[in-house]
Amino acid sequence: MSGVLVLDCRGMRCPLPIVELARHLADVPVGGELEVVATDPAARPDVQAWCRMRGQAYVGESLTVDGVPAYRVRRDS
Question: Which of 4, 5, 14, 25 is catalytic?
Answer without folding.
Answer: 14
